[in-house]
Design goal:
By secondary structure, the protein is of the alpha+beta class. It is about 35% helix and about 20% strand.
């Protein structure tokens, strides 16, 4: 074999992997740019993430919430991106041997994203497939071109390729650099289009003015909030209020175009209401504590806020709805969110006289987007997964035996009143207080029943009654404190609460699935 007949040098495998990575980045960037023009929820990462959430077993979701909290969605996104990165690297290496097969693999990525986007409950139809299809096409073409540069012999002279001269380094660098710059531009375009698309929604919230409530909340009693370091504030600031939902992208809804439809069994006067229609009604203001069913014993997913909204029971009555106890045919209210979430609430509970609200405001301002702007449901005494529909747009009256909402299909209970629970906020687990008087304090809750007593136990000693702070209402949590004469050594502090019905917080440890965790909260400390 002569020198001119030698086979061209094969490009290093890392360059194949780099080609795959650049193609993957281009695919995602183009997809996000198109999603910015279509709608952010149609982007492949969001669509695939949403599909993953829908298909994840309840126990795994509960584990993710327990370990990652409100960051669970960020962790999921990073996980999806990591998988896509590995997939892209592998395709790049594969394309060095099988160029067309590698490029076709990128199209598989697009097909998965398109199917995920169009099968979501909130899908807008076939247009939701466009971001994934466009991104995959761009990525496949780029991978094919880049690998072509790696397989193409370098020219030995003007117009003369030299088989032994190796791959086209200059052509590859130019193509790769151009692709990187174009991908960055597409990403920035997608971000700007998403921001522009949300501009009307942001403006509608900024311009929203909540009228003075016709039924204002009573002033919080003096002494309801204990001034003890480490105890949760009586009113939870909006920025600290827990958020647990399935939305990878927080819906940003324009209040000027938002509508709420009420219909279904027993609805003799169906209505479609606007945000302005609700603002014109009498508004009520109430302090209500919300609790997530995923809250472990002693967990952080409970918060107290001052809500303002319209009475849901009055609105339903005007539509002709009667609760089952008065002969109404529907026993379940199914609330639907703009993101496709469905939440079922007992009609009897919603209409039994408690302050069930269609809330428009939270702690003196319009609802934050993350907490449901423009309108959400708030029902004291029920866990959020059976009552607290955010970004609500539809209310249907039906029966529990006729329809299973989102969480029921995944093994959670149809009905779930909040359990009687208590938590030690201070001292923190594994704290090292100094011997002497140590203030043990925290919160207890039993919404719509109220807290009657809180007791603390040191090690295996007797239960001792704690001092209760003033009560705001039976729908809010209650703070408590206990001056403990701490002695040196390791100790276990345990708390339990009793509600106004006489129900004592159970000692039996139960999982959050299907209707909330049970058990006593304990902390271990070492006294110096």
């Amino acid at each position: 074999m002569t020198e001119n007949e030698r086979k061209p040098a094969r490009a290093p495998l890392p360059l194949g992997a780099l080609s795959g990575a650049l193609a993957g980045c281009a695919a995602l960037a183009v997809a996000e740019a198109v999603a910015g023009a279509v709608r952010p929820q149609a982007g492949p990462v969001v669509a695939v993430g949403g599909a993953a959430i829908d298909r994840t077993p309840a126990a795994v979701k509960d584990w993710a919430i327990r370990h990652f909290g409100s960051d669970d969605k960020l962790v999921l996104r990073l996980g999806i991106l990591a998988v896509l990165a590995l997939f892209a690297l592998a395709l790049g290496v594969l394309a060095l041997r099988f160029r067309r097969t590698g490029a076709a693999g990128v199209l598989v990525f697009g097909a998965v994203g398109a199917v995920a986007a169009t099968s979501r409950p909130d899908s807008a139809g076939v247009t939701d497939a466009l971001p994934s299809v466009a991104g995959a096409a761009a990525g496949a073409v780029l991978l094919y071109v880049l690998v072509g540069r790696l397989l193409q012999p370098r020219a030995a002279g003007p117009g003369t390729p030299s088989p032994g001269a190796g791959w086209d380094r200059r052509g590859f660098v130019i193509a790769a650099g151009t692709a990187a710059v174009a991908s960055a531009g597409a990403g920035l375009l997608g971000r700007s289009l998403s921001v522009a698309g949300a501009r009307d929604a942001v403006a509608s919230r900024r311009n929203a003015v909540l009228p003075a409530p016709g039924s204002p909340a009573p002033a919080v009693p003096r002494g309801a909030g204990l001034r003890i370091p480490g105890v949760s504030p009586f009113i939870t600031p909006n920025g600290d209020f827990y958020r647990v939902d399935t939305a990878l992208v927080v819906p940003e809804v324009d209040a000027t175009t938002w509508r709420l439809r009420i219909h279904g069994d027993g609805v003799t006067h169906p209505v479609v209401l606007s945000y302005t229609d609700l603002l014109r009604r009498e508004l009520v203001e109430r302090d209500i504590t919300l609790t997530c069913v995923s809250n472990e014993v002693g967990g952080p997913y409970v918060g107290n806020a001052r809500w303002i909204g319209v009475r849901l029971a009055e609105l339903l009555a005007e539509c002709g709805v009667e609760p089952p106890s008065r002969g109404g045919p529907a026993d379940q209210l199914v609330a639907r969110s703009v993101d496709g979430m469905t939440i079922g609430s007992p009609v009897e509970d919603v209409m039994d006289g408690r302050d069930a609200l269609l809330a428009l405001g939270m702690n003196g301002e319009p609802l934050p987007f993350a907490h449901g702007f423009p309108v959400r449901m708030v029902v004291p005494g029920l866990y959020g997964f059976v009552s607290a529909c955010k970004w609500i747009e539809d209310i249907e009256l039906t029966r529990f035996d006729a329809y299973d909402p989102y969480w029921v299909k995944r093994g959670w209970a149809r009905q779930a009143p909040v359990r009687t629970e208590s938590r030690i906020d201070t001292p923190r687990p594994f704290a090292r207080p100094t011997a002497g008087t140590v203030m043990v304090a925290g919160v207890a809750w039993a919404q719509h029943r109220g807290i009657d007593r809180v007791e603390v136990r040191v090690d295996d000693g007797p239960w001792q009654e704690a001092r209760l702070a003033a009560e705001d209402s039976r729908d809010t949590w209650r703070q408590w404190s206990f001056p403990w004469r701490a002695t040196r050594g390791g100790h276990t502090l345990t708390v339990r609460a009793t509600d106004r019905t006489g129900r004592v917080q159970t000692a039996e440890r139960t999982r959050t699935i299907p209707d909330g965790a049970g058990g006593w909260h304990s902390v271990v400390v070492t006294v110096d």
